[in-house]
Design a protein that fits this description.
Strand content: under 5%
Largest sheet: none
Structural class: mainly alpha
Mean pLDDT: 80
Radius of gyration: 16 Å
Helix content: over 70%
């Protein structure tokens, strides 16, 4: 819901989740070392957390529409 409040459509949110899932699955299949898999998982986690923090700082989509109207 937060991603939609940030202005993304439902379709964009679903595609974003599919993209993260695809990246995690591809890394799991392509990386042979457990250590590299751990690093990849940590990297994806950091990317997701940074993206969520940035989205949390944005005004909600409704607030942006109100600013644009007035």
């Amino acid at each position: 819901h937060r991603l939609q409040q940030a202005g993304l459509s439902e379709r964009q949110v679903v595609l974003l989740f599919y993209g993260f899932s695809l990246a995690a699955g591809a890394l799991a299949l392509l990386l042979s070392s457990r250590l590299f898999k751990l690093y990849a998982l940590g990297g994806l986690t950091v990317l997701v957390v940074v993206a969520l923090v940035l989205l949390a700082r944005l005004p909600s989509g409704e607030a942006r529409r109100r600013v644009g109207e007035g």
